[in-house]
Design a protein that fits this description.
metallopeptidase activity; Matrixin; Collagenase (Catalytic Domain); elongated; 17% helix; six-stranded mixed sheet; five-stranded mixed sheet; MetalloPept_cat_dom_sf
């Protein structure tokens, strides 16, 4: 469903303020609330909009006469507003009603009388309010921090909208933020722009937002948004003679997790090897530690969506295996590192083979299957400060 309704339509952008780590900073790219993302979900349920049909004219002497303000882009009233929202227990209808009531109270300042009627399950709405997980683009704006999207309608355009106009609002924000975004968007439907923020603060180009608390990644069945994790393996520091062994060892560890890791790994997890490191969620490399320690080091990256300093989703990370390890130990250390990367916060949370340093209790981890190995001391699974579990390089928030 396009937001480009009529020749006078334009896409605008609403920015939000992001509060991170106790300090206030402006998002580098303003979030958008002014262009639609597409058709409502196919799962949306059409309901009985008979009351609205009667209000439009219907049949019988009690029908409310239809009005046609010259500057009303629909050329009729009332204007039916439907809602396509997830069944998450929130009363989105009341939020939309609040936005409509706000502009009814300020009708004298708008381009036309806001004769909106909210019918959440309307089968043929004039406006559809869609609550979506994420807004990837809004008209000409292609930023990643949009909180809403709607068209700026021009009542002077002689062409009435031929299909429902979309107002798109990002889910996951508290009631006050959601109501502010809706009021902002309905202001655009009424012909108001960000230049009108002096009269109406809700039309400000930037607003302060508050996220709803979300489950931490460690508490989710699957801490990654996607079940397929892209892995880039960098063996540039491995001698050509040993690379085949490293590849086999790494594949052994990855396959173990794809098979469930003895019930510890998320269901249906899979890994995809990629040659381009920029396309990877996880990078796995080999490097000489040079500080007396050995084993594997890891860093986890993710999304702190609700600013509680805990990651709500993991997006990937890095594993570095010590170049001084015997190649036959690589699978064990990669396996242990993956366990931490996939949610473990302490040794007891790892899959059984990695909970202690004794590989003799599981022959499958005594080198590549079928190969004789030389027993060597088990090194450490380390997480030095420079490779902290949670990335601290810049904001940990993604759209």
């Amino acid at each position: 469903m396009s937001l480009a309704v009529g020749r006078g339509t334009a896409a605008l952008a609403l920015a939000f303020l992001v509060v991170l780590s106790g300090c206030t900073s402006l998002s580098p790219a303003p979030p958008v609330v002014d262009a639609a993302l597409g058709a409502p979900s196919a799962d949306a349920t059409d309901g009985d909009d008979g009351v609205v049909s009667a209000a439009r004219g219907g049949t019988g002497s009690s029908a409310v006469p239809e009005t046609r303000p010259a500057d009303n882009p629909w050329r009729r009233a009332p204007i039916v507003v439907g809602i396509d929202a997830p069944a998450d227990g929130r009363d989105y209808a009341s939020f939309v009603e609040s936005a409509v009531d706000y502009w009814r109270a300020n009708a004298s300042a708008t381009a036309y009388d806001p004769a909106f009627v909210v019918v959440p399950n309307a089968s043929t709405p004039d406006v559809t309010v869609s609550i979506v997980e994420r807004i990837d683009a809004c008209g000409d704006y292609d930023g990643t921090d949009a909180v809403g999207c709607a068209p700026l309608l021009d009542g002077d355009d002689p062409t009435a909208p031929s299909e429902p106009v979309s107002v798109v609002v990002a889910a996951g924000y508290d009631d006050q933020t959601t109501q502010t975004v809706l009021r902002h968007e309905f202001g655009h439907l009424l012909g108001l722009t960000h230049d009108d923020a002096g009269d109406f603060a809700v039309l400000s180009e930037r607003i302060e937002t508050t996220r709803l608390p979300e489950p931490d990644a460690a508490d989710r069945e699957t801490p990654f948004r996607e079940r397929t994790v892209a892995v880039h393996v960098d063996l540039s520091n491995v001698s050509p003679d040993d690379r085949a062994t490293y590849e086999a060892e790494i594949d052994h560890a990855l396959s173990y997790y794809e098979a469930g890791a003895d019930g510890v790994a998320p269901a249906n997890l899979s890994f995809e090897r990629v040659s381009d490191p920029t396309m990877a969620d996880v990078t796995l490399s080999v490097s000489a530690f040079g500080d007396g320690d050995s084993g594997v080091r890891w860093r986890r990256t993710g999304v702190d969506a609700d600013d509680d300093e805990a990651l709500e989703w993991y997006t990937g990370g890095d594993l570095v295996v010590d170049a001084g390890l015997d190649p036959s130990l690589v699978d064990w250390y990669v396996g242990a590192g993956l366990g931490y990367l996939l949610a473990a916060d302490e040794r007891a949370d790892l899959p059984p083979p990695f909970r202690d340093g004794d590989r003799s209790d599981d022959p499958a981890w005594r080198g590549v299957a079928g190969e004789a190995t030389v027993e060597r001391p088990i090194g450490n699974v380390t997480t030095p400060p420079e490779n902290a579990r949670i990335s601290t390089a810049g904001p940990r928030v993604e759209p």
